[in-house]
Amino acid sequence: MRIEVLTVPDCPNGPVLLQRLATVLGDDPQVPTVRRIVTDPEEAARRGMHGSPTLLIDGRDPFADPDTPPSLSCRLYWAPDGRPQGAPSVEDLRRVLHDADHNQSS
Fold first, then answer.
1. What is the pLDDT of residues 12-56, one digit of tens each?
2. Span 2-8, mean pLDDT?
3. CA distance 94 to 9
4. Is 3 helix (H, G, I), strand (E, B) or coil?
5. How far apart are CA 32 and CA 18, in angstroms?
6. Contact at 8 Å (CB) between 62 and 1?
7. CATH of domain 3-105
8. How far apart are CA 31 and CA 23, in angstroms?
9. What percentage of the chain reaches a pLDDT higher than 70?
10. What per-residue confidence (pLDDT) applies to 36?
11. Can you give the pLDDT at residue 101?
């Protein structure tokens, strides 16, 4: 599994996402996490960035609506209780990582 976190420069929610990923992944060296700073719309489109921060698992954004255009804007995620937040919850990260791992095993 390959994990990338895409952010714009100085995104305050990039470190939040990275910390939550660290909580979920622990110190598992089998799952490297790469952080990329994206600075222009063309790169956002090429990388599949749908706002900052964007999580990509094996090049796919598990939280993006298929109709969401590429963007350098701030991004909102919805907590399990329905509140907006700047990064996916630990619970949601566990779910999407589990699903991705399960899909690789199938």
1. 999 999 999 999 998 666 788 899 999 999 999 999 999 999 999
2. 96
3. 26
4. strand
5. 12
6. no
7. 3.40.30
8. 13
9. 93
10. 97
11. 76
Residue 29 pLDDT: 64
Task: Name the residue ranges covered by the structural domains of the chain.
Answer: 3-105
Is residue 18 within a helix (H) or strand (E), and if so which, with residue range? helix 14-25
The pLDDT of residue 44: 96
Burial of 55 (0-12, 13-18, 19+ CB in 10 A): buried
Residue 83 main-chain phi, psi, to 5 deg = -80, 145
Are the beta carbons of 16 and 74 closer than 8 angstroms? no
In one letter, which amino acid is 2? Answer: R
Question: Could you say which DSSP state residue 82 is in?
Answer: S
Q: Indicate the pLDDT class of residue 97, thresholds 50, 70 and 90.
A: very high
Strands 50-52 and 71-74: parallel
Between CA 68 and CA 90 the distance in angstroms is: 23
> Which amino acid is it at 44?
A
Q: How far is the C-alpha of 85 from the C-alpha of 82, rounded, in Å? A: 9
